[in-house]
From TrEMBL:
The keyword Transferase applies. Residues 33-158 form the Glycosyltransferase subfamily 4-like N-terminal domain. It comes from Dietzia natronolimnaea. InterPro entries: Glyco_trans_4-like_N. The keyword Transferase applies. Keywords: Glycosyltransferase, Transferase. This is Glycosyltransferase subfamily 4-like N-terminal domain-containing protein. One of its GO terms (molecular function) is glycosyltransferase activity.
Length: 372
């Protein structure tokens, strides 16, 4: 028996992969508050890490069909990089067999955390071609999806990343310090494969304007591991250790930060350099927007289009001191980042998702009727 969701049946039950992510919470927040949608909670994988949703069991629907019980619609965002293309195809077939719509949001055509883009493209293409509806975040990405796979997608802009009560005090505090150009920040996270370090940071230090400091944030456990000879990021660790010898550079190791701690740390910067070697869109850009923090944007994917304001980009593969100097000067002298109308944006994003869900449900119902 296949599901036949109607408005009389109560709220639409969405199996979001994942559910426990800031993007999903803000993209669907107002629809959830109205009672139109229920986002099913991610399964508890480890009581010791209650917020960890990966690897998501719903992606194993082919072998474990019960993971889709109580689901009216499946929406895949990310977290499928551990599955082979064949397994992704089996997942798509399992959702189709279940008779529920499959919606896919293409956040990344190039996964920023993987060194080889080919496998991610293959997996994503299988999802896109098998979906009942496709979403992406920019018109440029929609054009590329159409060129690659012949599939039209709905462009729904990225919502805010953090709650206003977390970011707004820091944004307002930044406005009070307008005109200060003292500190440039870089957040390297866990030194994943797609993060530039050894090729970027020494040149960035040389490109700093006079009287400007550089603060490089990095996970302390990742840095300690990378110092081991033979580690894939050993050269990055060496570059970071060398930078500490410069008087205007601080390498700041840290543990896993909460959202509040991350926003507090970023609010001390006057510009944030995004160090991604490749990617399509960036949640870091939206966090910059939330905080009113000017970004220095790598020339990859559709980040400039996503930002939507004047910006000077840089080549993250072969950056030069001159282009970094121009990009830093532009970011540090830019007018205040326009404040986002967060509630209105979130409402529009949620409404667009709800409309697309209704369309996908109708398409699946029509397909079932035609095959009966």
């Amino acid at each position: 028996m296949t599901p036949d969701h109607t408005s009389a049946a109560g709220p639409l039950r969405v199996r979001s992969i994942p559910a426990g992510h800031d993007y999903v919470r803000h993209a669907l927040g107002s629809a959830i508050e109205r009672g139109d949608i229920v986002v099913l909670a991610d399964p508890l994988l480890d009581p010791g890490e209650p917020t960890r949703w990966w690897p998501h069991p719903a992606l194993e629907a082919a072998a474990r069909p019960e993971v889709l019980d109580g689901t009216d619609l499946v929406h895949v965002h990310f977290g499928y990089e551990h599955r082979s293309p064949a397994q992704v195809a089996e997942f798509v077939a399992a959702v189709r067999t279940r008779g529920v719509p499959l919606v896919v949001t293409v956040h990344d055509l190039t996964n920023p955390h993987e060194p080889d883009p080919a496998m991610h493209l293959e997996r994503t293409g299988i999802l896109v071609r098998g979906a009942d509806a496709v979403i992406t975040l920019t018109a440029g990405a929609a054009d590329e999806i159409r060129r690659r796979w012949g599939v039209d997608s709905r462009v729904i802009p990225h919502p805010r990343l953090m709650p206003a009560e977390v970011t707004e005090p820091h944004r307002l505090g930044r406005l009070e310090k307008a005109g200060r150009t003292g500190t440039v920040g870089v957040a390297l996270g866990s030194l994943r494969a797609g993060v530039a370090a050894e090729g970027l940071l020494p040149r960035l230090a040389d490109a700093l304007p006079s009287q400007t400091d550089l603060v490089v944030m990095v996970r302390s456990d990742a840095l300690a591991s990378a110092r081991a000879p033979g580690h894939t990021r050993h050269e990055a660790a060496h570059a970071l250790d060398t930078l500490t010898e410069l008087p205007h550079v601080e390498v700041r190791p840290h543990d896993l930060l909460t959202n509040v701690e991350l926003c507090r740390a970023l609010s001390g910067f006057d510009a944030l350099v995004l160090p991604h070697r490749h990617g399509t869109h960036s949640g870091w850009l939206e966090l910059c927007r939330d905080l009113g923090l000017p970004p220095v944007i790598p020339d990859i994917g559709y980040l400039i289009e996503q930002w939507g304001h004047p910006a000077v980009s840089y080549d993250p593969i072969e950056p030069t001191v001159d282009e970094l100097r121009r990009a830093l000067a532009a970011a540090l002298s830019t007018p205040p980042v326009p404040v986002r109308a967060a509630a209105a944006e979130d409402g529009a994003v949620a409404a667009a998702h709800a409309e697309l869900y209704r369309t996908a449900l109708a398409a699946v119902a029509s397909r079932r009727a035609g095959s009966s």
